Amino acid sequence: MKEFSRRSLARRLAAGGVAAAALPKNASSQSPAPKRLAFPAGFKWGCATASYQIEGAVAEDGRGPSVWDKFSHTPGKTHNGDTGDVADDSYHRYKEDVQLLKNLGAKVYRLSISWSRIFPEGTGKPNEKGIAYYEKVVDDLLTNGIDPYVTLFHWDLPQALQDRVGGWQSSDTSKAFAQYAGYVAKRLSDRVHHFFTTNELVCFTDLSYKIGQFAPGLELRPALVNQVRHHGCLAHGLGVQAIRAAARPGTQVGMAENAVVCVPVVETPPEIAAAQKATRQINAPFLTAVMEGKYTDAYLTKEGADAPKQTDAEMKAISSPLDFLGLNVYTPEYVRSDDSPAGFAMVSRPVSFPHMASNWLYIGPEVIYWAVRNVSEVWKPKELYITENGCSSDDVLEKDGHVYDTDRVMYLRNHLTQLQRAAVEGYPIKGYFLWSLLDNYEWADGYSKRFGITYVDFKTQKRTPKLSSAFYRETIASNAVA
Ligand code: GBH
Predict the structure, then answer these.
(1) What is the 330 CA–ligand 1 centroid distance (Å)?
(2) If the chain, 482 residues long, is cut into consecutive pieces of 10 residues, what is the mean pLDDT of each piece?
(3) Which of 88, 197, 330, 355 is the best mutation target for the ligand 1 pocket, counting ligand atoms within 8 Å of the beta carbon and taking the most?
(4) Closest residue by Cα to residue 327 from 278, 387, 368
(5) By C-alpha distance, which of 325, 417, 335, 307 is closest to 368?
């Protein structure tokens, strides 16, 4: 495996780098490393992936189809008609991928489980081969000193549930999720100590049932969409209860949410207050409901007759106390104070606002500081993790065998600098999962967008750690921003 070693990278930079050239004549040829911004001792560094994006092996060992199999095989739905049929073939190459993590020095790894490997029909009889696969992966991680963090639902809903009950249009799917979550917790909680219920409520509800950009690709009317959102929240809540009931004592439960991150346009008390008001309002159908056990009056009033139908028992389940909260953080939304009753206004982005290779991925590194701080101050969660952060880049595998993804390093370095700021200010941030370990199947964008710190040649499945891997390894080794 060709990769940057800590020493050879240093040599390369010293030989040809600007720093060496700028040194006074009598200085040593090795310029000292800048003082690094340190993270608290024991900070958990890792990477994240998701089952459909990396596994492939879609028809193996009894796996049932998911909505993404059907959607990606429907002409016109994904870039170039790309599917996750093979993806990174991690189903067969997981040992190699665990070694990539080990070489990074990762302490933790966030992986997701494919529901339809465990319950091919969504409910009913579990498939022993499905659970056996994840037992193998988890055991290999543990053997290599890496603590697995397991996401139970990263969008690959069993197609059988879509066909039988309309997927997230029915609370039967929320109940089916709880059964599945409880079953996995029972089977794996002897070796997995952290579970996430759902990944990004807005993506498998709004993007999937309102905008139709993600599987199953529906465009429902507002009342139905609000009900879908509610069923997503309910799946999370019933899932928390089912995991607690089935898992060994001490098992920690949380969720991974991409709450809209409201960044104050200027860091002054009135603007910060506006951003925090916005945080509650903008996330009303999702994280606010989970943290507060009710939909905000503003949300219910705005939706009127289209508001979700709900019961007290459901809202109680939805707001089950969590051991930790995971935040997937990518892009800022800027907020300012104003004199409206809401007390805030969203600020639109100038056309010139910079973004990464994905058009939506606007770069505002302070987003990660404000994600942690707003959520901490508004809801006071016990513990926080960044469950995803990272970016796409138009990576090129150079003739020398390396990928110099300097833009990704820039993105990561600046986000980690802002995360360190939150950590030293004392917010309860415990760890960081970089998205992603590998280039992978980027949903509707297919293979056109690479998010990995490891380059994957999708023809040969050859893995090549990029420059950003060397950056991340150095960061992990020093527990400080490299
Ligand atoms: C996360 O979603 C996912 O959890 C992960 O699976 C994914 O690979 C990763 O981020 C990178 O995308 O095309 O303008 O309509 C992040 C949330 C939702 C952001 C879909 C981009 C499409 C915006 N994503 N959204 S647009």
Answers:
(1) 9
(2) 57 38 53 93 99 99 99 98 99 99 98 99 98 98 99 99 99 99 98 99 98 98 99 99 98 98 98 98 99 98 98 98 98 98 97 98 99 98 99 98 98 99 98 99 98 98 98 98 98
(3) 330
(4) 387
(5) 417
